[in-house]
Hints:
Layout: H1 5-10, H2 15-31, E1 36-52, E2 55-73, E3 76-82, H3 87-102, H4 136-151, E4 157-176, E5 181-182, E6 186-199, E7 202-212, H5 221-233, E8 244-250, H6 252-265, H7 268-272, E9 293-295, E10 318-322, E11 325-326, H8 333-339, E12 353-355, H9 362-369, E13 372-379, E14 389-400, E15 403-416, H10 417-422, E16 424-427, E17 432-434, E18 437-439, E19 442-450
Parallel strand pairs: 8-13, 12-18
Antiparallel strand pairs: 1-2, 1-4, 2-3, 4-5, 4-6, 6-7, 8-19, 9-10, 9-12, 10-11, 13-14, 14-15, 15-19, 16-19, 17-18
Helix pairs in contact: 2-3, 4-5
Amino acid sequence: MPDHPIASAALPLSRDAMSEVARRALAVARERGASDAEVEVSAAVGQSITVRRGEVETVEYNRDKGLGITVYVGQRRGNASTSDLSPEAVARTVEAACAIARHTAEDEAAGLPDADRLYRGEPPDLELFHPWGLAVDEAIEIARRTEAAALAVDKRITNSEGATVSTYDTDFILANTRGFLAGFPNSKASIGCGVVAEDANGMQRDYWFSSERDPMRLEAPESVGRTAGERTVRRLGGRRIPTGEAPVLFEAGIAGSLLGHFVSAASGSSLYRRSSFLLDRLDTPVFAAGVEILEDPFLPGAMASGYFDAEGVATQRRRVVEAGVLKGWFLSSYSARKLGLATTGNAGGNHNLLVKPGEHDLAGLAALMGRGLLVTEMMGQGVNPVTGDYSRGAAGFWVEGGEIRFPVEEVTIAGNLLDMFRGIVAVGRDVLVRGSKQTGSILIERMTIAGD
Length: 452
């Protein structure tokens, strides 16, 4: 596979060099008696600059390379890794993995993916690699502009948690003893800021950030800062509300967490351990009838795009939820074998999950809700993956007559994820593209709100 011209210039290892290290590791594994092996060689470079109150607080720079190898001796598996890619160090690492494999128990599900599942063919350009090439001075200036915009929003903003500008570029080669060898470079850039506001009732904080593969698609620094400031100020005067039941509207920025709970429950490791509230629910209604969820690994420039998964299996575009009905799991080769099924190309997690947007923006959803809680921040991890019971701290705004009336803090929202999924009234068109899950705000018919 030819070098990517920019990747080779910026990263610690070229594509050819990584491929050579991978081939060498696989050859050593064979020599040491492994029946099969898989290796990943990676290289990365990045920097992160934080400015607080106009002064540089941290400058972090990383330039890394490494190798991780999994060997199989029959049905026994061993893993080892190293950041030293010299021939001697690679050989020692492979030997360590083989020694571990010989001393582990046999596992009939262990092994490389079936050869016919591996990606073959020419790699598509998914537009994932966009090096920013940002000098430290330029990053500092962007961070200062971001923070200054946040502090200028309101005189009640009295302190800053800082503004951070980060860049990260990486490349890798994944190879195995079944003839697979491929990889692709990718980038990530982000701008974020958090500030603190204060009035007679106390202090509040909030933040905002923008993250993209391509830095040219980032929100402007002034926009990120202004949003962080506005979100912080509007939380001043937060109060608790009486305990009761009401509709709950999850703002787009946190609605993705609901998808995260869904993916976790629909993943192979939860299923074969029988620790999922979605057990035996394939091809049954799990969401409200209007909910559609698509998994698309081929979105150009998206955070979770890739034409093969973490073990080289070809990915696929598929509908995971159709008209509320669960149509597919998230399986690696190992978890699929444990379940007597076929891999779905999800070793390493889900690819881009897209929830079909509806007709309303956030204001329209609030009007549709009429009376209830708009949640803009979540705290705690009170989710039982076996039963689906859900209880988390929350903050946001009370909505009455379809309009925001006052900020709310120190409440807990509770329910059961199955009831919540089935109780989705609407999904907004205000899709926030962050990470591997893309959704608008989500309105749920009813939850318990614990306050005063």
